[in-house]
Specification:
α8 runs parallel beside α11 and α17 crosses α18. This protein has 25 helices and 14 strands. The protein starts with a strand and ends in a 9-residue tail after the last helix. It is about 30% helix and about 10% strand. The strands form four sheets. Strands 5-4-3-6-7 form a five-stranded mixed β-sheet, with helices on both faces. The chain has a four-stranded antiparallel β-sheet with strand order 8-12-13-14. Strands 9-10-11 form a three-stranded antiparallel β-sheet, with no helix packed on it. With about 800 residues, the protein is of the alpha+beta class.
Length: about 800
């Protein structure tokens, strides 16, 4: 724009850009008198579209009226016009102008208007500066989708339809649905909330877009006020971490839970929008409340388990630090073999030397939903401590988290369906048994999924990822998430964040406890840090108040995690240190456990008749926890497959095979009774009245009745059955001293003992009177063959009569040459 000189003697004019001129603070348009003209405010008449024509015309009339009352001139007045009598601000007051305008509108327009109405219209217009503020609300009453029906009745109706759509309730027709609606409203709100008649309810279903003929086949239910489309904020990101979306879903897989039983798997992901990278992932078992074997529920302490707020905090920690390589990872998972800028990252952060191929992205803004995982104060406090902003998506609007929702679909189609325990998208319809299937533990499944992220997801080209530094006119190929991250690092750089132990502990849940002589009592467990130094460990905090007032009431701050209740950390703000206190009965358990397993052990202790007030209750719970961990390590064996063990949707186990009958003599040949010894000889052999034998007397062959009969020619006499085996001692070796180191000199046998052993036995049978132990031994051996069987009765009787011949044989049953 060319500006002329303000005086005639000045040389030429000056050229100024119009935006620069309009932006100047002293720029103004002057009138002929040299006064600045006030800029007329343009009314937003476009907002009147969609309003009934009569209401719009009435609003325009009120706009002319309030402007004239306020300024003295009507809108669109000619230049140089003067205010009409009664509306000149220089000579009249606002009240006078209000009365004049009210009288004019009542007489000319035929409207009964008071001056208070004119005042209210003017003040509303000056507050909103919009013509819509002058529209009579009675003329544009909004038509609600539910009509005149109470909003609480509509909410209960939609809840029942959603339960039926999710197959939580059996399918039914409209009349049964209306009956359940009346009972639910009466139970929730009493008789004060009225449910309309059935014709009105049928019309209400039509307004809500629900077909009464096809209630069982509904897939989605749109609530009043629910609208689709993108969120009303920025959803695109140019640099890593600018926008991150987090959400949880069921992974459609069965895994081995903490207690050794099958459990569903829940996945929580954090996806970066700029690079489409999965920067963190957490797998947790989704275990319902356990039931007893008889079908009745256990104690109320045996709660279920799913993803918690502390798991979402762990997700943040994973995103801020490089993912370490695990021992079971493949070599291809390492970051140096990927498309990441490994050398540049290693030069800045040494932790990448042993890191997996997963980008490290610091979130700046995170989009979450209204789930219980993110609704707690723990997650909000963790984000505030790490300097991360949060934005909640709209309720029941998946478009606000479209990227992470689409990522879940890809994970289920490219990872979940290749696992042997995949159930499909609808676990109610797809029923697969776990018999014969290998159930992966949660740690094994997490290892497989982390490797899949590094090898598959991060190396798959994405149609929305292009090089931001390349020319816009030329064709730019699709990039993988790793390649996109490398391109962004060249522009934005990488700043490592070293997380210390203090940072990791501050994002955990907080509790306030006291410290006694025994330690910290928390969640029915005792934690202690045994230290002899009175200035170390928990000793400075025992039986003392923390000095913190308010709700803390002098208690101490501790941090804990339900994923590992084996230890807690106490914050000593006087020394500015964290004191780690392990569980005192951890040696009884011997392995890591979770709060879910602890609740199960407590319920088992209560079912066995125990009480939490017992002195040894904690020890007994620890023993029950150890047994539970031992059974969980074995997995769901055949002995554990009882009714109630199988999860919902699984077929019952096959009946057990019939017990095998124990038959110890099955398959053996009949016994040859002809080779059994004589019962009389057995009585003499085993019934010795507790008296010993003298081996020397047996060799001497002295004594009456010591002769033995002849032995059958085909059988040799049995060796001494009472002789010591190869582990015994040889008396001759003792005398010779052949390599035996004896500390004490052997004591010779007592003469009285030898006399007692050789004394005749008192027998009741006349033919055996006067016989000592050695004579009985020789007589019994004479009746036994080499194989231990007895000769027939004839040989025994002949041996008894032929005493001199037996004496010639030596008395031991063996013939002499």
């Amino acid at each position: 724009m060319h500006l002329a000189a303000d005086t005639a003697g000045s040389e030429g004019g000056v050229a100024v850009l119009l935006p620069v001129l309009a932006a100047a603070q002293d720029f103004a348009v002057l009138d002929s008198a040299g006064h600045a003209l006030e800029q007329a405010e343009l009314p937003d008449f476009a907002l009147l579209e969609g309003i009934p024509e009569a209401a719009a015309q009435e609003a325009l009339a009120w706009h002319r009226a309030v402007v004239e009352v306020d300024t003295g001139l009507a809108p669109g007045a000619a230049r140089g016009a003067v205010p009409r009598p009664g509306f000149d601000p220089a000579t009249t007051t606002l009240i006078q102008r209000y009365r004049a305008k009210a009288s004019e509108m009542s007489s000319v327009l035929g409207m009964r208007v008071s001056w208070q109405t004119v005042q209210a219209k003017r003040l509303r217009y000056r507050r909103h500066r919009s013509v819509v503020a002058l529209v009579d609300g009675r003329r544009i009453k909004a038509v609600r989708a539910q009509g005149a029906t109470d909003a609480r009745v509509v909410e209960v109706l939609l809840s029942l339809v959603e339960r039926q759509q999710r197959r939580n309730d059996p399918p039914s027709d409209a009349r049964r649905l209306f009956g359940r609606l009346r009972r639910a409203v009466r139970a929730a709100y009493g008789e004060g909330v009225k449910v309309p008649a059935e014709p009105t309810l049928y019309k209400l279903l039509g307004r809500l877009g629900i077909s009464a003929r096809d209630l069982g086949a509904l897939r989605t239910v749109r609530r009043p006020g629910q609208v689709g489309g993108p969120p009303f904020s920025v959803t695109e990101a140019q640099m890593p971490g600018e926008l991150v979306q987090i959400d949880s879903t069921d992974l459609d897989l069965w895994a081995l839970g903490d207690d050794g039983r099958p459990a569903r798997v829940e996945l929580t992901l954090a996806v970066d929008i700029a690079t489409r990278s999965i920067i963190a992932a957490v797998l947790r078992p989704k275990q319902t409340r356990r039931r007893r074997q008889d079908g009745r529920p256990q104690a109320a302490r045996a709660r279920g388990r799913a993803t918690k707020a502390v798991d979402a905090c762990e997700l943040l920690v994973q995103a801020l630090v490089p993912a370490p390589m695990r021992p079971e990872y493949q070599e291809a998972v390492h970051a140096r073999l990927s498309d990441l800028p490994y050398q540049e990252l290693l030069a800045v952060d040494e932790r990448f030397a042993g890191a997996a191929a997963r980008p490290v992205i610091i979130p700046d803004l995170i989009v979450i939903d209204h789930g219980t995982v993110f609704a707690g104060q723990v997650f909000f406090d963790a984000c505030a401590y790490l300097g991360i902003s949060l934005r909640t998506a709209r309720r029941r609007t998946g478009q606000d988290k479209a990227v992470v929702e689409r990522t879940f679909g890809t994970v289920k189609s490219k990872f979940s369906q290749h696992v042997n325990t995949y159930t499909g998208r609808d676990p109610v319809r797809v029923r697969r048994t776990v018999d014969g299937e290998r159930l992966w533990t949660l740690a094994e499944l997490d290892s497989l999924f982390q490797q899949w992220i590094a090898l598959e997801w991060q190396n798959t080209p994405h149609p929305e990822l292009v090089d931001p530094t390349g020319p816009r006119e030329a064709y730019r190929p699709e990039l993988t998430p790793n390649q996109m991250y490398a391109a962004c690092v060249k522009v934005d750089g990488y700043l490592p964040i070293p997380l210390s132990q203090d940072d990791r502990l501050r994002i955990l849940p907080t509790a306030w406890v006291g410290v006694s002589n025994q330690g910290i009592r928390f969640a029915n467990r005792t934690y202690d840090c045994p230290e002899r130094d009175p200035d170390k460990g928990l000793n400075p905090c025992r039986r003392t108040r923390s000095g913190l007032n308010g709700k803390r009431r002098g208690r101490w701050e501790i941090r804990y995690t339900p994923n590992d209740p084996s230890r807690v950390w106490l914050r000593d703000h006087h020394r500015s240190i964290w004191v780690e206190a392990p569980w005192v009965h951890m040696d009884r358990v011997g392995g890591p456990f979770t709060q879910y397993l602890w609740d199960i052990a407590v319920s088992q202790h209560l079912e066995r008749g125990g009480s939490l007030k017992d002195a040894e209750a904690e020890q007994m719970i620890a023993d029950a926890l150890a047994e539970l961990l031992e059974r969980a390590g074995r997995g769901p064996g055949a002995a554990d497959r009882r009714p109630g063990w199988m999860p919902d949707g699984y077929s019952p186990p096959a009946p057990a095979a019939p017990a095998r009958e124990f038959a110890p003599y099955a398959g053996r040949a009949p016994v040859d009774r002809s080779r059994l010894p004589d019962p009389a000889l057995l009585d003499d052999l085993f019934v010795l009245n507790g008296q010993g034998l003298d081996p020397g007397a047996a060799n001497a062959g002295a004594g009456p009745g010591g002769a033995a009969g002849p032995v059958a020619p085909d059988r040799a006499p049995l060796d001494d059955p009472f002789a010591l085996d190869d582990k015994g001692l040889d008396p001759g070796a003792i005398d010779a001293g052949a390599g035996t180191d004896w500390e004490d000199v052997p004591v010779p046998p007592s003469a009285a003992l030898l006399a007692w052993e050789r004394a005749p036995l008192r027998q009741t049978r006349p033919e055996k009177r006067g016989e000592n132990l050695a004579d009985r031994h020789r007589r019994i051996r004479a009746g036994l063959g080499r194989d231990g069987s007895a000769d027939d009765g004839r040989a025994t009787r002949e041996g008894a009569k032929d005493g001199p011949r037996a004496a010639e044989d030596g008395g031991d049953g063996m013939s002499r040459p």
